[in-house]
């Protein structure tokens, strides 16, 4: 929440609801962790941005995450000259791992997240993202 209060330019990059078109029911959320090109990514993926998402349990495995990711990446490509997208996924999350691989992300490393523990770091070039 502090990101929104301290940086009004982050608002459009932050969290967005994932909802059903017909009922407008919220089934999850998706967004970028920061604005484009944060300092913490410079050593592994310069000119990149990292995103994350959550689909609520009753709505998983129905294609909502894939549709939301495709839409988010296309939106970002139109708004900022990025080179790469980053997704960090727990090795204990086979569904998300399979999804990022399906979308063309390639593993470039590992990191320890203070909250989530071990995560595998995946990267997708903007050029590949444009074909999604």
What key phrases describe this protein's structure?
alpha+beta; Aminopeptidase; six-stranded mixed β-sheet; 132 residues
Tell me what the structure shows:
The protein contains 4 helices and 6 strands. With 132 residues, the chain is an alpha+beta fold. The protein has one domain: 3-Layer(aba) Sandwich (Aminopeptidase). Strands 1-2-3-4-6-5 form a 6-stranded mixed β-sheet. The longest helix is centred in the middle third of the chain and has 16 residues, at 64-79. The chain is globular.
Shape from CA axes? globular
Q: What can be said about the biggest beta sheet?
A: 6 strands, mixed
Broad structural category: alpha+beta
Q: Quick one: CATH class? A: Alpha Beta
Q: What radius of gyration results from the CA coordinates?
A: 14 Å
- List SSEs in N-to-C order: HEEEHEHEEH
Question: Low-confidence stretches at least 5 residues in length (pLDDT < 50)?
Answer: none
Q: Round the mean pLDDT to the nearest integer and report it.
A: 93
> Any idea what the CATH superfamily is called?
Gcn5-related N-acetyltransferase (GNAT)
Report the total helices: 4
Report how far the terminal alpha carbons are from each other. 30 Å
- What fold name goes in the CATH topology slot? Aminopeptidase
Tell me roughly what share of residues is in helical segments.
Answer: 25-40%
